[in-house]
């Protein structure tokens, strides 16, 4: 089989009162995805942010939120990961559980996505390029790229802003990647447009599939500066006659509410696109020219 059916969630940000409530929210979408034939389900960046609503010993405000990310949300990630392992096993589906806060062994705060397989394996990918708000929290970016297999596809995870750095995707393609998963959190339309355009560009440049899962809505927290999130669940691919989508859109959410988009992706179409490119594609690269240009301007 050359096809993989994936589900991409457009997850509503809610004030979750407990880890159990959050996991039940996740599992409702995992179960729906599995019933609809999905073999993989993707969740957004910082999917567990709504668990700020579980804090009861103080008001969550701009003054407390950095400490809450470090000391409260990160402490819940182990339990969340165990919950995702159970869901993956019981529903027979790969759960790419979005990303969550965690404290690394070096004591740093990381934004980490987890790829949880039905057989119990858990793989992880740290976000590499952090946003100014993440830097202001004292978080640290990762230094490694995960490459894994799901069905016929070689898969990688680029978290939100990471999709805007084409060097990463070109490296991944050289390693055989043909499907990129992009958990995302953006708090204005500019950010959502940057991520969406980055996904389209990477799919066109590299003749592969890219899936975006956004967090949407607001939990009303922090109380004095509520986070509002926006975006659209989207799966995009090459823009050519091999795939047959004039805009590259394989599937997209059609509402601004919580939704799961399910689509079957055929790896053979990506291989066909790469073998007989309609526009200049990977097969028509000129690495000798790129080396000359790089040495002409120097390393930057």
TrEMBL record:
Pfam families linked to this entry: CN_hydrolase (PF00795)
Domain CN hydrolase: 4-267
InterPro entries: C-N_Hydrolase (IPR003010), C-N_Hydrolase_sf (IPR036526)
PANTHER family referenced in this protein's UniProt entry, alphabetically: HYDROLASE YHCX, NITRILASE-RELATED
Protein name, UniProt field: CN hydrolase domain-containing protein
Organism this protein belongs to: Saccharopolyspora karakumensis
């Amino acid at each position: 089989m050359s096809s993989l059916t994936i589900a991409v969630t457009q997850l509503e940000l809610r004030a979750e009162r407990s880890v159990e409530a959050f996991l039940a929210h996740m599992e409702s979408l995992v179960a729906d995805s599995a019933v609809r034939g999905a073999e993989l389900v993707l969740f957004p960046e910082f999917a567990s942010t709504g668990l700020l609503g579980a804090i009861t010993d103080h008001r969550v405000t701009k003054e407390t939120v950095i400490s809450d990310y470090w000391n409260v949300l990160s402490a819940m990630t182990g339990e969340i990961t165990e919950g995702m392992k159970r869901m993956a096993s019981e529903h027979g589906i790969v759960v790419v559980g979005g990303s969550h806060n965690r404290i690394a062994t070096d004591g740093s705060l990381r934004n980490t996505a987890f790829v949880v397989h039905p057989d119990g394996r858990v793989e992880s990918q740290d976000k590499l390029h952090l946003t100014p708000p993440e830097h202001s929290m004292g978080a640290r970016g990762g230094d490694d790229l995960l490459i894994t297999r799901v069905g016929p596809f070689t898969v990688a995870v680029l978290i939100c802003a990471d999709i805007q750095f084409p060097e990463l995707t070109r490296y991944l393609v050289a390693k055989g990647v043909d499907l990129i998963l992009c958990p995302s959190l953006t708090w204005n339309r500019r950010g959502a447009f940057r991520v969406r355009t980055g996904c389209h560009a990477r799919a066109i440049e590299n003749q592969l599939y890219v899936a975006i899962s956004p967090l949407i809505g607001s939990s009303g927290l922090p109380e004095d500066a509520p986070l509002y999130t926006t975006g659209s669940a989207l799966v995009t691919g090459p823009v050519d006659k091999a795939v047959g989508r004039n805009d590259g859109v394989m599937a997209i959410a059609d509402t601004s509410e919580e939704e799961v988009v399910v689509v079957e992706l055929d790896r053979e179409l990506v291989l066909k696109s790469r073998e007989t490119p309609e526009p200049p594609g990977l097969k028509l690269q000129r690495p000798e020219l790129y080396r000359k240009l790089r040495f002409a301007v120097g390393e930057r």
